[in-house]
Each structure stands twice: as C-alpha cells, then as structure tokens.
Design goal:
Layout: E1 20-21, H1 31-42, E2 46-56, E3 61-72, E4 77-85, E5 93-97, E6 100-105, E7 110-113, H2 130-134, H3 139-142, E8 143-152, E9 158-166, E10 176-182, E11 186-187, E12 190-194
Antiparallel strand pairs: 1-11, 2-3, 3-4, 4-5, 5-6, 6-7, 8-9, 9-10, 10-12
C-alpha cells in the first residue's frame, strides 16, 4: 500500500479505510511504535486490502472502491489493484511489478503497459499520478511521527491521532499526514493529507 503515501497535488481529499487482523498487547504505545507496526503490517510478504477513495473538489465528488493484492520478495514489489465500484469502472485493473505498470481495461479486454509519456498523468481522476504507484516511500524512514490526541474506543483499546511530518531530506510533497489508528485487534486508518509542506488541507 505504499503508493498511497506518495505525492499528492491539486485539490482533493482521500479517505482510506483499511481493515487488517493484528494482535496487539493492551498497552500504551509510542508514536514510533505505532508507525513501525503500521509499516510492518503494510510491508509483509503478502497482503490483501479493501479501500474506499473519495475525490472531492468544489464542483464534483468521485467515490471509488477498490481491492488490492500485494506481494513483496527480496528483489521487487508486486501488486494488483482492481476497481470494484462504481459500475462504470468495475473490473479496471492495475498491475505493478517493480518499476513497471500495466492497466487492464474491461471494456476492450485489453492490457496496456503504461508508457513513460503517461506516467505523469492522473490515476483514475485523482491527484495521484501513475508514477506515484511505482515510487516508494517509508512511514518509518521518511516521516517524524507525533501523537496528537488519544481517546478510548467504545469497544476497548485506544484511538490514536498521529501527525506524520516529512523529514527535511525526504522527497515528500505534502506538509504532513494525519492518521487515526485503533490499537485493538483491527487497525482502521483515516488519512487526511496536507500538501505542499504548508498548513493547507486537501479536503
């Protein structure tokens, strides 16, 4: 899921809901520990996730639902993304192997390799580009985390709001990411991306 933490530009808000099984001890965790656990979870040898992406600007809104299969070996990362909603985009697929990206268009039943000339184009109408899908960033290596707020979840455990600020030397375009994490059994993330390293929300 690392491509979700890439450069975001223009107007738009992306809300990502991820659900994963993860066993945690009932204890107070530091910001660094929470980020390491999230990173370990995302960087496992294989993973499956279902996500909802909402793109908003003053004139329109575009919700999309997608599922992702990811596998990583010692040499390269591989993942496959399939759009499941809305109906007009259902079945559209993207396959990444290393730095290469392919797209499957169900209407024509064709597979197309994304050429270098199209890597800077918008991905599915969002502010992400095709190039963002193949570049990598690390929550642990590229960000400085801080716990902003904590509250008790009705079903037990704690909800942490984390602020992740890019390290000065990292090639990250936005100023920070706000992340909400539930520490008991299932991690649920809500991400608010603030862009251009200024206090400017993409909402």
């Amino acid at each position: 899921m690392r491509f979700l933490y890439k450069a975001l530009s223009g107007l738009g808000f992306i809300l990502i809901g991820l659900a994963f099984g993860l066993s945690l001890k009932a204890q107070s965790l530091s910001a660094e520990e929470l980020v390491k656990k999230m990173d370990q979870l995302m960087r496992g040898e294989s993973s499956y996730s279902r996500m909802r992406m909402s793109i908003h600007n003053p004139d329109w809104s575009k919700p999309r639902e997608l599922e992702m299969f990811a596998y990583e070996d010692k040499n390269q990362e591989k993942f496959f993304i399939r759009i499941t909603a809305p109906a007009r985009d259902r079945g559209t697929g993207f396959l990444k192997i290393g730095k290469n990206l392919w797209m499957f268009v169900p209407g024509t039943e064709r597979v197309m390799k994304i050429p270098p000339s199209m890597m800077r184009e918008s991905w599915m109408g969002s502010d992400f580009t095709n190039d963002d899908l193949v570049r990598e960033s690390s929550l642990v290596k590229d960000y400085i985390p801080k716990i902003i707020t904590t509250e008790t979840h009705p079903q037990g455990g704690m909800i942490y709001q984390l602020e992740l600020v890019p390290k000065p030397e990292s090639a990250i375009i936005w100023g920070k990411i706000l992340v909400w994490v539930w520490d008991q059994g299932i991690f649920r993330f809500g991400n608010n991306f603030l862009m251009n390293r200024k206090n400017q929300s993409t909402r």
